[in-house]
């Protein structure tokens, strides 16, 4: 469990699409102090740090940082999605990908068969031509 899981859970359950909070409010949600680096806007902006994933994983983006405050906005308005619904959506996406991959494999397999057949036909024609 990440130090930032409480913030991630908080944002995942939030119905509103905007959240403006003081650093002290963020610390209350976290149940821990923010690092000193959080005073710098660069700490809040980016995509590859564990603390940034706390909001990015739920579709939130930092819209402003300054004077001990941070503003986050949901990238797209949404309805709060229950875990079972999210799992079903991910499963459907995986199944669609598998079907698409199988379709591509069938097309490639068919193309290979056609090329192999043309190779056999060409070999027969060459043999017939060589005999004559």
- Share of helix among residues? 55-70%
On the 0 to 100 scale, the average pLDDT is 84
So how many helices? 5
In total, the number of strands is 3
Unreliable parts: none
How much strand? 5-15%
What descriptors fit this protein?
single chain, 5 helices, rod-shaped, alpha+beta, 132 residues
Overview of the molecule:
By secondary structure, this protein is α+β, with helices and mostly antiparallel strands. Helix content is 58%, strand content 14%. It has 5 helices and 3 strands. The chain has helices spanning 5-13, 23-30, 41-44, 50-56, 83-131; strands at 18-22, 60-66, 69-74. A 3-stranded antiparallel sheet has the order 1-3-2. Strand 2 (60-66) and strand 3 form a beta hairpin. It is rod-shaped and about 95 Å long. It starts with a helix and ends with a helix. The relative contact order is 0.11.
Provide a compact summary of the structure.
This protein has 132 residues and is of the alpha+beta class. 58% of the residues lie in helices and 14% in strands. A hairpin with a 2-residue loop joins strand 2 and strand 3.
Write the layout of secondary structure elements.
Blueprint: H1 5-13, E1 18-22, H2 23-30, H3 41-44, H4 50-56, E2 60-66, E3 69-74, H5 83-131
């Amino acid at each position: 469990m990440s130090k930032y899981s409480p913030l991630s859970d908080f944002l995942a359950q939030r119905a509103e699409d905007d959240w403006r909070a003081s650093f002290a409010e963020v610390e209350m949600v976290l149940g821990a102090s923010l690092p000193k680096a959080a005073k710098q806007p660069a700490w809040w902006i980016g995509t590859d740090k564990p603390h940034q994933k706390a909001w990015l994983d739920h579709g939130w983006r930092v819209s402003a940082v300054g004077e001990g405050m941070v503003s986050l906005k949901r990238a797209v308005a949404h309805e709060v999605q229950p875990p079972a619904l999210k799992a079903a959506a991910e499963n459907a996406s995986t199944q669609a990908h598998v079907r698409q991959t199988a379709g591509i494999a069938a097309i490639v397999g068919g193309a290979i068969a056609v090329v192999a057949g043309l190779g056999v036909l060409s070999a027969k024609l060459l043999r017939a031509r060589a005999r004559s």
